[in-house]
From TrEMBL:
The phosphoenolpyruvate-dependent sugar phosphotransferase system (sugar PTS), a major carbohydrate active transport system, catalyzes the phosphorylation of incoming sugar substrates concomitantly with their translocation across the cell membrane. The enzyme II CmtAB PTS system is involved in D-mannitol transport. Keywords: Cell membrane, Membrane, Phosphoprotein, Phosphotransferase system, Sugar transport, Transferase, Transmembrane, Transmembrane helix, Transport. Its main location: membrane. This is PTS system mannitol-specific EIICB component. It catalyses: D-mannitol(out) + N(pros)-phospho-L-histidyl-[protein] = D-mannitol 1-phosphate(in) + L-histidyl-[protein]. The lineage of its organism: Bacteria, Bacillati, Actinomycetota, Actinomycetes, Propionibacteriales. InterPro entries: PTS_EIIB-like_sf, PTS_EIIB_2, PTS_EIIB_2/3, PTS_EIIB_mannitol, PTS_EIIC, PTS_EIIC_2, Sugar_PTS. The chain crosses the membrane at residues 32-50, 56-74, 86-107, 119-138, 159-178, 268-289, 296-314, 339-361.
Length: 502
C-alpha cells in the first residue's frame, strides 16, 4: 500500500508570484467571514440599506477602518510567528491607520473652500505589510536570545520584547508605511478611475483571465483588487472590482461548451466540473479545459470582458469580496438593487464564452479530443503543486505514504487555504469513517499554515506533504492527488479499523 513520493519543485518568477499570491490569500481567506459580516451589516443598516438603522450604522465605519485591517495584520503575523506575531502585527497596523488619518486630515485642512475632502484610506495593504513583517522581526529577535535568558526572567523578557517591538513597528507604520500606502492607493485608484472613465475596464480581462489559468489570480485579486474594492465599497457601498476575478460566468460558459461540443473524456466530465465551478466556486477546475485547447483563452477573455462591460453599464457591484467565487457568494454580496445587472453580467459572460468556445471547438478538425490528464498535469505544473479538485476530473491515482501503527482518533485534511477542496475531501472521508462504525474519529480540514502537531493522521496533496510533515512531524501522513474520490480513503478506513480495534 505504501509508496514513496518525491515532491516536484518549482522556481522562476511565475512560481514566486504564485507563492506570494498564496501568502496574500492566506491572510485574506480566514477573514472572509468578517468581510461577509461587514457586507451584511452594510447592506442592512446604512441609510440606503434594506433596514436602515442609524444607531447600528455607526459600526460600519469602525469595522472597515480598524477591525478588518487589524484582523488581517494579526492573521499575517500569526502565519509567521504564532500568537506573538499576531499581537505585534495587529498592534503595528494601528500606527499605519493613525498615520494615514493624519495625512488625510492635513490634506483636507489645506483644501480650498468648496473642494471635496479626501476620504479615509483603509490600511489593508498596510496590514498585509506590517503583520508579517512585524512577526518576522519578532521571530528573529526571539531566536536571538532563545536559551540565553536566566531562569525566572523568561516572562519578563517575552512580554517586554514583544511590547517594545510592537511600539517600534507602530512608529514604522505611522511614519513609513502610511505615506507609502497612501501614495500607492492613490496611484492604483487613479488608474482604475481612468479605466472606468474611459470605458476601458473590460480590458482588464485580457490580463485577468490568462492570469487565472496560470494561478496568478491570488496575487491580482488579494494583492490589488480586494484592497481597492474595499476602499471603494466603504465610500459608495459597492465595488465592481470584486466582480472582475470572481465572476463565475466565463468558467461556466467554457464547461458548457465542452458539454455540448467537446468529445470524449472532456465532454463527459465537463458537466460535473461546471457544477463544482459555478456553485462551489472552485474555478481552478476549469483550467485544464483551457490548457487542453489554449486557443480557448480567447473565449475566456471575451466572456470576461462581456461580464465586466455589462457590470459597468448597469453600474453594479458587490459590497464585499465574493469568496469562493460561487454564484451563491456573488448573490450574497450583491448590493441592493444590483441583482439584475449582476445576473446579466454572470450569464452574459457565460453565454459569450459558450458561443466563442463552441465555435472554436467546432472549428477544431483535429482528431485529438483533448488529453485531460495531460492538461491537468500542465495546470498543476503552472500552479506549482497538485490540484485538489482536478483529480476529480481525471480519476487520478493517489499516493499513500504511511501505514499507521497507532490508534487514530483525529484526522486533518490539509491544503493551502484549508477552506475549499480539502473541506469536500474531509466530508467524503468523514462519511466513510462514520459508515464504517467509528464515531470516535474526527475529520477536519485546515490550512497547512495553521496545522499543529496534535493530529494522528494528516491527509494532503502529494506536493504539499513535505510542508505538512514539517508542521506535524509526529503524525502519520497520507498523500493523495484526488480529494474527491481517492482510493486511499478506503485504505485509511481500513487503517482505522485495524488500529482502533482495542
Amino acid at each position: 500500500m505504501a509508496t514513496t513520493f518525491t515532491a516536484p519543485t518549482g522556481s522562476g518568477a511565475r512560481v514566486r508570484v504564485q507563492k506570494f499570491g498564496t501568502f496574500l490569500s492566506n491572510m485574506i481567506m480566514p477573514n472572509i467571514p468578517a468581510l461577509i459580516a461587514w457586507g451584511l451589516l452594510t447592506a442592512l443598516v446604512i441609510d440606503v440599506g434594506w433596514l436602515p438603522n442609524a444607531d447600528l450604522a455607526t459600526m460600519v465605519g469602525p469595522i472597515i477602518h480598524y477591525a478588518l485591517p487589524i484582523l488581517i495584520a494579526a492573521t499575517g503575523g500569526r502565519m509567521v510567528h504564532g500568537d506573538r506575531g499576531a499581537v505585534v502585527g495587529g498592534f503595528a497596523v494601528m500606527g499605519a491607520i493613525a498615520g494615514s488619518d493624519l495625512i488625510v486630515a492635513n490634506f483636507n485642512a489645506d483644501l480650498p473652500a468648496g473642494d471635496a475632502p479626501l476620504g479615509q484610506v483603509h490600511m489593508f495593504i498596510g496590514a498585509m505589510i506590517l503583520g508579517p513583517l512585524s512577526a518576522y522581526i519578532m521571530k528573529r529577535l526571539d531566536a536571538l536570545w532563545d536559551g540565553k535568558v536566566k531562569a525566572g526572567f523568561e516572562m519578563l523578557v517575552n512580554m517586554f520584547s514583544a511590547g517594545i517591538l510592537a511600539f517600534v513597528m507602530a512608529l514604522v507604520g505611522f511614519y513609513v508605511v502610511a505615506p507609502v500606502v497612501n501614495e500607492v492607493m492613490e496611484v492604483l485608484g487613479n488608474a482604475v478611475e481612468w479605466l472606468v472613465d474611459n470605458s476601458l475596464l473590460p480590458l482588464t480581462s485580457i490580463v485577468i483571465e490568462p492570469a487565472k489559468v496560470f494561478f496568478l489570480n491570488n496575487a491580482i485579486n488579494h494583492g490589488v483588487l480586494t484592497p481597492l474594492g474595499l476602499a471603494e465599497a466603504a465610500d459608495t457601498g459597492k465595488s465592481v472590482l470584486f466582480l472582475l476575478e470572481a465572476n463565475p460566468g466565463p468558467g461556466l460558459g467554457l464547461l458548457l461548451a465542452y458539454s455540448f461540443f467537446g468529445r470524449g473524456v472532456p465532454k463527459a466530465t465537463a458537466p460535473g466540473a461546471a457544477i463544482i465551478q459555478f456553485f462551489g466556486g472552485i474555478h481552478e477546475i476549469y483550467f485544464p479545459y483551457v490548457l487542453m485547447k489554449p486557443r480557448l483563452i480567447l473565449a475566456m477573455i471575451a466572456g470576461g470582458m462581456t461580464g465586466v462591460a455589462i457590470n459597468v453599464a448597469f453600474d453594479v457591484g458587490l459590497r464585499a469580496p465574493a469568496a469562493p467565487g460561487s454564484i451563491f457568494a456573488v448573490y450574497a454580496q450583491t448590493a441592493r438593487g444590483d441583482y439584475l445587472g449582476v445576473t446579466l453580467g454572470v450569464f452574459g459572460a457565460a453565454a459569450v464564452t459558450l458561443v466563442v468556445a463552441g465555435l472554436l471547438l467546432k472549428m477544431d478538425k483535429s482528431e485529438d479530443e483533448g488529453d485531460l490528464t495531460a492538461a491537468t498535469a500542465q495546470m498543476e505544473a503552472n500552479k506549482g503543486k497538485k490540484s485538489s479538485v482536478a483529480g476529480a476530473l481525471t480519476g487520478g491515482v493517489a499516493t499513500a505514504t504511511a501505514t499507521a501503527t497507532r490508534e487514530i482518533r483525529n484526522i486533518v485534511f490539509a491544503c493551502d487555504a484549508g477552506m475549499g477542496s480539502s473541506a469536500m475531501g474531509a466530508s467524503v472521508l468523514r462519511k466513510k469513517i462514520q459508515d464504517a462504525g467509528h464515531p470516535e474519529v474526527t475529520v477536519v480540514n485546515k490550512a497547512i499554515a495553521n496545522l499543529e502537531d496534535s493530529y494522528d493522521l494528516v491527509v494532503s496533496h502529494q506536493d504539499l506533504t513535505d510542508r505538512a510533515r514539517q508542521k506535524t512531524p509526529s503524525a502519520e501522513h497520507v498523500s493523495v492527488d484526488n480529494f474527491m474520490a481517492s482510493p486511499r480513503y478506503d485504505e485509511i478506513v481500513e487503517m482505522v479499523r485495524d488500529n482502533n480495534r482495542t
